[in-house]
Structure formats: C-alpha cells, structure tokens
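Quick illustration for those who missed Monday's session on complexes.
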Amino acid sequence: MEIRTTCLLMTLCLGIVSVSCEELLHRQKRVWIIDSFKIEEERPGPYPHVLGNINVEKKFRVGFHLHGQGVDLDPKGILSVNTNTGEILVHGKLNYEDHNKLKLTFEARDATNNVVDTRLGVEIEILDINDNPPVFENNLHIINLNESASQGYFLATVNAKDKDKKNTNNGTFDLKIVSITPTPPDDLEFFLQQTGETNGIKFKGCLDHEKSEKYTILVEAKDRGEVVQLSSTCTTIININDGNNHLPVFTGQTGAGSIKERDSGDVPVLRLQVSDQDTKGTEAWKAKYTIHGDKDQNFRITTDPETNEGVLFVQKPLDYEDGSLRNLSVSVENEAPYFSCKVKGRSATGLWDVVTTRGVSLTGLTPPLLPTRQVTVTVEDVNDPPIFTPAIKNVTVEENVEVGWYLETFTAIDLDRKHANTFTYVKGKDPCDCVAIDPKTGKITTTKILDRESPYVKDNVYQVTLFAIDDGQPPMTGTATLNIHLKDQNDNLPELEMATMDMCLSDEPSEVNITAYDLDGDPYSGPFYFQLQGNDVKGKWRIDPNNGYTVNLVKENTVYAGHHELLLKVFDLQGQGALHNLSVTVCDCSGVANCRMRRATGSKIGESAVGIVIAAMLLLLGFLLLGPPDDL
Ligand SMILES: *[C@@H]1O[C@H](CO)[C@@H](O)[C@H](O)[C@H]1NC(C)=O
Ligand SMILES: *[C@@H]1O[C@H](CO)[C@@H](O)[C@H](O)[C@H]1NC(C)=O
Ligand SMILES: *[C@@H]1O[C@H](CO)[C@@H](O)[C@H](O)[C@H]1NC(C)=O
Ligand SMILES: *[C@@H]1O[C@H](CO)[C@@H](O)[C@H](O)[C@H]1NC(C)=O
Ligand SMILES: *[C@@H]1O[C@H](CO)[C@@H](O)[C@H](O)[C@H]1NC(C)=O
Ligand SMILES: *[C@@H]1O[C@H](CO)[C@@H](O)[C@H](O)[C@H]1NC(C)=O
Ligand SMILES: [Ca+2]
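Prediction with 2-acetamido-2-deoxy-beta-D-glucopyranose bound:
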C-alpha cells in the first residue's frame, strides 16, 4: 500500500518518467520483496547443500550476487550463490544461539554492463534446536548457617539460564531439588522458592547441628526440550554452626563445702560439675554460673576454663555466730544465649508452626528456667578473739599523782557462744614502765610518778596498750589502748640555756644575752622575771630588760678583766624562782677576737709574760730602794 502511494507520488511529480507506473511498481516490488528461508541450526552435513532458488524474471542475461551475513559478514563463508542459477548453497553449520537470523542482499545484475537490475532482501531464519542445557549462574554455594537461624531464612540463589529460544519448550526449564545428603530429619525441609526473578533455597522447621552439621543440596534445572531434555545441577553446601541448644546440666559437686568462719581472702569452698552436649570449648558449651540468695555477697563463683566447673569462693568472711549453714542456689547457663526450636505443626503450604526459645526469655523469668542447684556451705566455728568496746579510752590525770593511782579498767568480751573463754589481761606498750594491769580484772594503776615533761609523753598524752588473751586453742588476743592525758603542774623551775659567758673589756657598757626556759607549760612557764642578787653588783652589772625569755646582762665599764661569779634569780609566771650561778669571764679582746680564743691560745703565755714583767719590775724596785747587793 505504501509502495503504491510512493509510485503515485512519483508519477505525479515526474511526468516525464519513461517507464509506465505499472512497470515501475513491478521493478520496485522486486527490490523490496524479502524472500525468506529457514535453516535448522547445527544441521549435520553433507555440505554444501542447496537451500533454494530466488526467482527473478530474467529478460536478459543476469548474474546473481549475494552479500551480508553468512557471505561477507559474520558468519562469513557459510552461504554462497550460484551466479548463473541463483541457487543458494549452505556450506556449514549455523548456531541459533549466535545468530537467530541472517540478513542478506540478493542482486541480479545485467550480465553485459553489471548494472543492478533487481535487488532484494533475503532473511534466513535459523531454527532453534534444543542444544543448550539450562546453566546455573553459580554451580557451587557454600554457606555457614547459625543453628538458631529461623525458618524461611534465604540460603542461596539458584538462578539458571537456557540459551535456547525463549518461550519455547527448548528454552524453558524447571528447577527442583534432586537430592539432599544426608536426608534431613522430619522436622527440617529444604525447598525452592521463586521471588520475582530470584529462585532461592530456603528451609522450614528447625536446624539442629547435633543431627547433621552439614547438608549438600543438589538442585537440577531441566528444560522441556521436545526431542531431548537437557539439564544441569548446582550444589549448595550448608554448614550448620553449633548454636547453644543444650543447657548445661549439673552432674555433681566436689570439695569440702565448709569454711572456717572469718577466713579471709578468696577461699574456694566447692566445685560444681556440669555437662553440656554442645561442642566443647565453644560459647555454647562454656558454663556461666550465677549465685542466688547470697544477701551479703559473701560468695562469688567463677568458671574453671579447663573443666567448665563452677568454683564457689568465699570472698567476704562469714561469721559462725550468724548461723552455721548458708543455703545458696547456683544457676547455670552458657556464654552464648540458649536457643531451642520445636516443630508444633505442619501446614501444606507456607512455613511450619515452630516454637523457639531464646536465652533472654529464660533469664528474664523469676525464678529463671535455668538449671539450678542448691548448695549448702557449712561455717565452722573458730575461736573468736576477745573484743574491747571501746578499744580506745582516754583518761585525764594530774602529773605527779601518787604511785598506785587508779587510771581505768578495761573489760574484754567474747563473741564465741560455744567457748566460754576467760581472759588474762597483759600489758603491751608502756615505754616508761609506769603502769600495772591486774591480769584478772583489767584494772590499770600507776607504778611510777607520771611526768608530763617526760620524753615518753607526746602532746601531754602518755599511751599504754593492753591485751586480753583468751584460753582458746589457738589463743586469741584483743588489743586496747589507753591514752593518759596528763595535766600540767608547776613542777619545774626556770633554767638557763647557758650560764657561762665571755665578755670583752671595753670603755663602754657591753652586754651579752641570757635565755631562760621552763619545762612546764603555760601558765607555769615564761615570760620570766630576772633579778641579779648581791649588793656588790650595783654599778657593775645589771639586767636589761629584766622581763622576757631572753634578756641582756649589761656590764659597766667599771668591771675589770678577770673571772666574775654572779648570782641570778629567775622567776616563772607563778613567781616560782630559781637561783643560777652566772660565770662571766671578762677579758681584753683588743689582741684577739674574743676571750675564748685568748684562753685557748694566748692566755698561758700572756700570764707568764705578765709574771716575768712583774718579777722584773720587783727586781728593779729592789735596786731602787735597797741599792745594788753587796756582792755585785
Ligand atoms: C526444539 O528442538 C528440537 C530439536 O531438539 C526441534 O526439533 C524443535 O523444532 C525445537 N522446537 C522449537 C519450538 O524450536
Ligand atoms: C551467628 O552467630 C554468631 C555467634 O554465635 C553471631 O555473632 C552472628 O551474628 C550470628 N549470625 C547471624 C546471621 O545471626
Ligand atoms: C538450709 O538447708 C538445710 C537443708 O537443706 C535446712 O535444714 C536449713 O534449715 C536451711 N537453712 C536455711 C537458713 O534456710
Ligand atoms: C581521746 O583523745 C584523743 C586526743 O588525744 C581524741 O582524738 C579522741 O577522740 C579521744 N577519744 C575518746 C574516746 O574520747
Ligand atoms: C644571744 O647571743 C648569741 C651569741 O652572742 C646570739 O647567737 C643569739 O642570737 C643572741 N640571742 C638573742 C635572742 O639575741
Ligand atoms: C653557786 O656557787 C656556789 C659556790 O661555788 C655554790 O655554793 C652554790 O651552790 C651555787 N649555786 C647554784 C644555784 O648553783
Ligand atoms: Ca550448650
């Protein structure tokens, strides 16, 4: 119809065209006619074989030519044409999967001038035969699957393709599971399911590592070939990881199960044995213990990594007096959460009805549904030490109280109900050996005068300790401390730090300092009042100022060199005075730095020199008074 229209258009526009429309149409028709042939793919020989003839009207001698796929385009050299007869020859096999159609151009040319007379398209359809099996995208899948995986879990994709002609039986295939090794138990079923473009392997029911840790599933894809059916398989290996689908079971208990009261430190008391059917060493096997009913957290439990035993320790000492038995319960679970799966019912379609239990739902319950064992720990009574309440007492006494003064009484008590112990009180620390303790009553009295100024007294406190020793086996000891606070008395007189001093001879009054102290505390101590005794000191010696801790002894220039003894009275704040001899050496310091140096080095020589001088002077005086001796 279209061709006709084109012809009419051309006729209208090109009136001068010499050929009739009829003829044009005919010729054009020849060019556009598409001849078609069919060749079955993979056709066995012999070759060449004749495919057929293309008929064209031959008014004059023509030569036939063929171009395109199969001749000078891929697949080259399969087809040829007999130039004289127009007969098409096939020289080899064709493959539908490579080319399902060959397109060629057939030409008839004028044999004399080689001008194309007729040109037409030729299509050669390649007929499919079933020469391709369906092929899987992957031939092997290896999958690690947790035992706790839920049914319906997608295991693997088992997609396949068939290269044969689509929408024909040769290119259409079916998938099915052909074998499962080993045969799954009746609560497990593997199946294929198509979702969209994807074919997957899934399972329904429950996985159980203990029944089989591995399944090998063979899936076959088989086409619906009319003459032959072709197939291939794909293998899926499913390794099932062992999950925790067995709880540990208590099997026994070893160890004394008893502990001495007050045993301190971590003491193991007993071991609990369990067995677990899961793979040894895995988290599904390793036991985890929990103690219940241990109000004061006296116990702790650990898992022995070798044996999986629960080792119960006493981490905080127990007291027999709180009861001789401790009842505990110990529950056990695994490090990995527990998991169990049970098939309750099967429906013909869809997944089955399964009941799963997971770890959280076990421990969340009170009491937990975990295996639990009652254990009783016996607390053995041991001799309790005597106890002083209070263990520290203070007592205050005046210092210098008379010997035998009562200070305090300590009484120990015994917490033991079984052992009715009697105690002996013994003195511990008493550095000045100043007190005595009655061994029966614990009464403490003094045996010496207590001196607040004693070096054993620190900050007015003298400390003694005492022990109460019971008669248990082994004997136990309790300790108490008595702090004796000593009240000060004015039992010490002012003292001088230095009573011997040197002073230099000088024309001016000179001074040296004097420092006093008193062992007593305030108000029995300084500042002190100083007073020089004797009448002969007037105009020679004085104290300035005469009040304080350190004052000056002032020497007037009327004092000559030599040794001077002065009597100084020093009074404390209460007016209690003490006399002290002051020994003052006055010397001429002009030659040497001070008297001490003079005494140490030059004084003897000096003195003898003075003696010689005096002797010489006396001799000279004798001459002057008596005249020279007769014998001279
Ligand atoms: C399918 O293949 C067979 C040969 O195996 C062939 O005879 C048949 O014609 C093919 N069918 C289709 C629809 O191609
Ligand atoms: C499988 O189990 C392991 C440990 O038991 C866990 O870490 C992992 O997340 C699980 N995998 C799946 C897919 O649940
Ligand atoms: C502990 O258990 C023992 C025996 O099982 C029982 O005789 C005792 O009364 C229990 N003690 C306590 C404090 O529950
Ligand atoms: C005993 O005296 C000390 C000071 O020496 C004081 O710290 C302590 O609290 C006193 N103890 C009692 C029981 O009075
Ligand atoms: C007292 O004299 C000595 C020696 O002369 C000196 O070291 C000391 O500092 C003096 N003390 C006072 C309080 O002046
Ligand atoms: C002072 O010295 C005299 C004589 O040497 C002596 O009798 C007296 O006891 C001394 N006084 C003191 C307080 O030392
Ligand atoms: Ca387990």
